[in-house]
Specification:
This is Helix-turn-helix domain-containing protein. This protein is an alpha+beta fold. The protein is built from 18 helices and 13 strands. α9 packs across α14.
Length: about 500
């Protein structure tokens, strides 16, 4: 979707919905009460989508208005900018407007190009072994337009299952309706209660499956949190596991035991091309079930509203971890009952992204590092403290986000606890619904921190925090002056 003078143009998204249902343009026009020629103009972005028609489309296809957002286009543009920043493409000097035009004209081709680059990077990291030809051939077959059953899907390069699963979860908007509702129904039918889940889940496992929950002091030395001893009917927990982690583990096991069919059904529908990716997806669906069981949709959504999304209060009310609250808020996209669209990111102290999802137009770098101006890096200097930031991205979207370290302290002098932090953010338009807007003067431009998607894809020419030049810009290292960054950047001519 694009916007011109306040009008919404969503031709490509409407075509996608129509194609999914196997409808002709004429059939959809009849269902919407439009003339085929008028729908044709809308699908070709020659006419905007009127508000009443948007409502009809949402009701007809079971999507929210947010589905017609331009987040996919923004993510594609950013990904292409990062890709073209590779020295492999040093002769390519494409402006952002060029990339936008290319994606709008041929989004599938842009996706294939990104898939091929994924394959190139994967092959390069294997040391150009025999896997290279296999990876390139499979990615090229996808670009050649072979049927889905004969090729990996978009971004699903066989040697990169983690990326493939992440792309799939993003396409599903991090919401899996059947699994979510099953977890919610179990919570209500078993009359579970907020903050005291541990005893109830221990009893459930014992009564329903004859499984005992016991502590195994040897697991921690092998970096294992829990292990299910199916033959001995025991769920072994590492010594010292916090209560919020133990209930999450029990939720994972309950999902595997009682809802394996639903979890597997979601994975089968994913279209993931490799066994490794499907195995990772099953783990992800088990985690999703556990999160939905600990924080049932309607109860949690109402509590979040009542408490203005105060993360610490929600954490205490439901007896879960700070990270679990943040992650669950990023999944609240049930059709007709949507919560605030949040983005969620988990990163380590080196800036490696461990987990991410965005229900907003916010987009993360795919091949580069995070922007050093983010408050997530300040969080590591003050562990346990909450850091609030108002930020503006390169496409002028303004977000309110909070960051905090998560995890646990070491258990001995020789322990090396993992240093990680999470960021939760949403459009500043939702600021009045968040307690974290209290005391902020959102009209003061000085409060807004300009962040980017990573230096290689960032188009800001005046950032003193830049580490490397951006793709598609001319570099001027001469002149009679020297700034903090030892060169000037200007858009390439064209």
């Amino acid at each position: 979707m694009s916007k011109r003078a306040g009008k919404v143009f969503a031709g490509s998204r409407i075509r996608e919905l129509r194609s999914r249902g196997g409808q002709t343009q004429q059939a959809l026009a009849a269902e919407l009460g439009l003339s085929p020629s008028y729908l044709n103009q809308i699908e070709n972005d020659q006419r905007p989508v009127p508000a009443p028609l948007m409502v009809k489309l949402c009701n007809l296809f079971g999507v929210s208005a947010a589905w017609f957002g331009d987040s996919d286009e923004i993510r594609q543009i950013q990904a292409l900018r990062e890709i073209l920043g590779d020295p492999l493409f040093r002769s390519a000097s494409l402006r952002p407007t060029d990339l936008q035009a290319a994606i709008r004209a041929a989004p599938a081709l842009a996706e294939c190009f990104a898939t091929l680059y994924h394959a190139y990077r994967a092959a390069r990291h294997t040391g150009h072994s025999g896997a290279e030809s296999r990876v390139f051939s499979e990615a090229a077959r996808g670009a050649a337009g072979l049927p889905p059953e004969e090729r990996p899907g978009a971004g699903q390069v066989p040697v990169a299952p983690y990326d493939a699963v992440g792309d799939w979860v993003q396409r599903e908007n991090n919401y899996f309706d059947e699994i979510d509702r099953c977890a919610e129904e179990l919570y209500e039918s078993e009359m579970l209660r907020e903050g005291i889940l541990a005893a109830s889940l221990v009893r459930y496992l014992s009564d329903r499956h004859g499984i005992r929950v016991v502590t195994d002091p040897d697991l921690d030395s092998r970096a294992v949190i829990w292990r299910f001893d199916r033959r001995g009917r025991r769920l072994l927990m590492a010594d010292g596991v916090p209560s919020e982690s133990s209930v999450f583990c029990m939720g994972q096991v309950i999902g595997r035991l009682d809802y394996a069919r639903q979890l597997d059904r979601a994975v089968r529908r994913s279209g993931l091309a490799t066994a490794d990716a499907r195995d990772l997806a099953r783990v992800g669906m088990g985690n999703y079930f556990a999160g939905a069981l600990l924080l049932p949709y309607r109860r949690f959504r109402q509590a979040a509203r009542d408490r203005k999304h105060d993360l610490d209060q929600l954490q205490r009310q439901f007896g879960v971890s700070f990270e679990q609250v943040c992650h669950r808020l990023s999944t609240m996209q049930r059709p007709g009952e949507e919560g605030i669209p949040f983005y969620f990111i988990k990163t380590d102290i080196a800036g490696n992204i461990l987990k991410s999802h965005s229900a907003t137009r916010f987009s993360l770098p795919r091949f580069g590092g995070l922007c050093s101006l983010w408050n997530v890096f300040r969080a590591f200097s003050a562990p346990g403290q909450l850091h609030v930031q108002v930020s503006r991205t390169t496409d002028d979207a303004v977000f309110l986000n909070v960051a905090r370290t998560v995890g646990h302290a070491g258990v001995s002098y020789f322990d090396r606890p993992r240093s990680v932090a999470v960021v939760l953010g949403c459009s500043v338009a939702h600021a009045p619904e968040l307690v974290y807007s209290a005391g902020l003067d959102l009209s003061d431009e000085r409060m807004i921190i300009p962040i980017g998607p990573g230096c290689r894809a960032c188009i800001r020419t005046d950032c003193r925090h830049r580490a490397i030049p951006a793709a598609g810009f001319q570099i001027d290292a001469g002149g009679e002056e020297r700034g903090v960054v030892p060169y000037h950047m200007a858009p390439a001519p064209g």
